[in-house]
Every structure is written in structure tokens, then in C-alpha cells.
Amino acid sequence: MKPLAFLGALTLPVALVAGLAFAQSQVGTAAAVESLRGADPDVDVTTAPVFHQNKQRFVRNYRLQPPLIPHSIDKYQIDMKANECLACHEWRKSGERGAPTLSMTHYQDRDGLQTDTVASRRWFCSQCHVPQADAPALVENLFQSSGQ
């Protein structure tokens, strides 16, 4: 029984050494990896922001498409405790801020009853709404608007 116990004790160190050797052999291969835009993943790439706010909102491409956000939301806090979107878009404040009011569907609970506060299932705005951006496509997109 002692020889088998000794063999079991050697298995872990041998596996660790083999894993380390494999990882070292892959270092040269990592340089061949490229991003979708062709950048080396190990090089810091400084780019201009792709966000371009348009005076006019983008048209929707299909019925019931959530509107795109015509401004940056990079520093907005949207979590369990706060939602900065509501500072302008909540129905009580949208008039004085000149912002579009949330759809009344955002004020319905899961049973369809209207409330005065945003429903918890509609709390995380960026789950459906994204900032509009004039950015180059990463992959080919063959989508055609239903309005065409």
C-alpha cells in the first residue's frame, strides 16, 4: 500500500509542473490573437469615443423597438439603489427637464396594474435601451428594417 500512496502524492506536483510548462509554451501563441477590429490584445489602444450625439433621434427599425438613448450614459448609476435616468425621465420630472417621459408600460406591475412609481421589472433601463452611436460594425449585419 505504501508505493501507491507515494504515487498519489507525486501526482499533484507533476500535474502542476506540466501545467506550468504548457502555459509557458502558449506565451508565444497569445501574440497571434487579434480583436475583431484587428488590435493586439496586449497593446493599449487609445481611440476617440465612438459616441456621436445627433440632434435628431434615430428612427426605430421595428414596431415596439425600445428608443435609443441620444446621450452618453457612461457615468450613470443604475443599480439596486439608484437609477439616474429617472432624474429626468420619470413622469414627475420630465416636463421641467424637457426630457421624454417614460412610457406608461414602465409604471405597470406584473399584473398590469398602474402605479405611480417605475415597476421593478423596468428599473434597469440599459437592459432594453442603449445609447445611439455612429460606430463601425464589428461584424456584417444583414438586418433590414420592417419599415422598408
Automatic annotation (TrEMBL):
Single GO MF descriptor: metal ion binding
Binding sites annotated in the UniProt record for heme c 2: H106, C125, C128, H129
Keyword set includes ATP-binding: no
N-terminal signal peptide: 1-23
Main localization of the protein described in the UniProt heading: periplasm
Keywords: Electron transport, Heme, Iron, Metal-binding, Periplasm, Signal, Transport
Pfam families noted in UniProt: NapB
One biological process term in Gene Ontology: anaerobic respiration
Entry PTM: Binds 2 heme C groups per subunit.
Location of this chain's protein in the cell: Periplasm
Binding site for heme c 1: H71, C85, C88, H89
Record's protein name: Periplasmic nitrate reductase, electron transfer subunit
Organism per entry: Cereibacter azotoformans
